[in-house]
Design brief:
alpha/beta, 8 helices, elongated, six-stranded mixed sheet
């Protein structure tokens, strides 16, 4: 009788151990599945957010500005459309009532074969405010790096756009004059292709705005330059953004690119880097929605 009871107890313990092991195996399978499910859901949510842009506002002050100026900045559209013929984007810009619109490069793709997206957008936006456009690397490839090169500047000028390729222009509202310089070359080519053309611009006493697609220009060539405000794009906000750390990666710059997105104080002026309003190929944007930049100067 005692032996039978002992045998039953041993069997019960063995059965209990089997159940514990079975539960552990289930947990070992369930936890990765749950992590995969949560990660997949998070990525799907982030990708869905990338289909809708947000508006980022900046407020600046200057003694050179007597009449308030509002600038809308577009960068890195990459021929993306928000609604039919970019209706959502156009209406958002119309609502802001800007004084001028700056397009600072990569509004198209280097392998585009037709340009209806940017043409239609410019046709709509020029009715809202004058457009000033400088080239990014994708426009540069289209115009100078393809066998079937595209005269994109001529196409845009026919739509009433002021294209600034290492050139400057002036915009006046009331008692305020804004001098705009479009620098369409990366830092490596600045000295050879753009520096001499900018001499007259740096001598201006009015409020000076630099439009350039490339952030590297500002930390390697123009960090101490005499401007009031500058814009850049190109890094797409660092693609994946971590709170307090900012953007973590760009294919050209590697990890933690400098000036990935936001407002930066340079020696004499302010740099605002757009996170871009389009995508970046197959690499998803995480915690980094496309943005429309609006700057008010008073």
């Amino acid at each position: 009788m005692v032996e039978e009871l002992r045998r039953q107890q041993i069997e019960a313990v063995k059965e209990k151990i089997k159940k514990v092991k079975k539960r552990r195996r289930r947990r070992l399978i369930l936890i990765p599945c749950l992590l995969l499910l949560v990660t997949g859901g998070f990525l799907a949510y982030q990708i869905s957010l990338n289909q809708h842009f947000e508006t980022t506002y900046y407020q600046l002050n200057s003694e050179k500005v007597d009449t308030d100026i509002k600038i809308v900045v577009l960068s890195d559209l990459h021929s993306m459309e928000y609604g039919s013929q970019n209706r959502e984007l156009v209406e958002a810009i119309r609502k802001e009532k800007p004084d001028l619109i700056a397009m600072i490069g990569d509004m198209v793709n280097e392998d585009d074969v037709e340009f209806s997206v940017i043409q239609n957008l410019c046709q709509e936006l020029k009715e809202i405010a004058p457009i000033y456009y400088t080239l990014g690397n994708h426009e540069g490839t289209l115009m100078y790096g393809r066998m079937d090169s595209v005269a994109l500047d001529e196409m845009l000028e026919e739509e009433g756009v002021t294209v600034l390729i290492n050139q400057s222009a002036e915009f006046t509202k009331g008692d305020t004059t804004i001098c705009l310089a479009g620098i369409s070359i990366e830092a490596a080519g600045y000295d050879k292709w753009a520096k001499a053309k900018m001499d007259n611009f740096w001598k201006k006493r009015d409020y000076k705005v630099v439009l350039s697609h490339f952030p590297d220009l500002y930390y390697s060539k123009l960090k101490d330059a005499d401007f009031d405000l500058a814009f850049a794009g190109h890094y797409h906000g660092g693609l994946i953004r971590i709170p307090k750390l900012g953007g973590i990666y760009h294919p050209e710059e590697g990890f933690f690119p400098e000036y990935a997105g936001g407002q930066y104080a340079l020696t004499n002026g302010t740099l605002i880097v757009s996170r871009g309003i389009g995508g970046h190929g197959k690499i998803p944007r995480i915690n980094n929605r496309p943005e429309l930049v609006v700057v008010e100067i008073n």
